[in-house]
Amino acid sequence: MNGRSNPLSFEIKNANLPLVTVGVKSLDLVQLTADLQTRFGDSPDFFDNDPSLIDIQATEGTLDLGGLLQLLRRYHLNPVALKAGNPAHEAAASLAGLFITGEARVLPAAAATEVVREVIREVEVLREVAGAGQSALVVDKPLRSGQQVYARGRDLVVMAMVNPGAEVMADGHIHVYAPLRGKAIAGAKGDTGARIFAASLEAELLSIAGVYRTSDTPLPKDVAGKPAQVSLVDDKLVMRAL
User: Per the confidence metrics, is the pTM higher than 0.70?
Assistant: First the structure.
């Protein structure tokens, strides 16, 4: 009998997997280690074993792939693919079990219910959505330039100034009971109902669920330097005085 009455025990479908793209500009692991420590040293759990694409197209020199993979995994990244353009590098990646890719398609920011675009220091990151529900993380010290605080899965309350160059990020709301002069990213994993509250709104960057606004666009006069809240309405950031 050629036919089969029972359904197959598997099925195959196309799938889009959000990836963190790590654009490596230097193969000097000493320098890369120092830069990663500077960027993520205060937030060792920033990544959560996120699948990642390593882009080394802009690099020259000898690739220590094993050392590079070990370094990225130390920061809870899970390399699964390589974009190189160098046959020797691609061969090494294949032996290491990585997928070789040419061009990676970035998912549209409009799909905020599926992925979130986090804009931090000109780095774009795609992540899976997760809900918030834990108690708030409270920070009672001023944040200096280069410092970053991330409230994973909850709100963030900052009782002191967020200086220019500092970053505050939360999966829920952000409350800053002092001047907010750095970068504030609320709803970091796609919560469109998240809000940003500041005693004095002077931010370099504001972002909610992937929709962002930088200081290149001046704040409205009725909220600049004043108590204000920021919310997301129809995919636009709306600022209102408190």
Answer: no
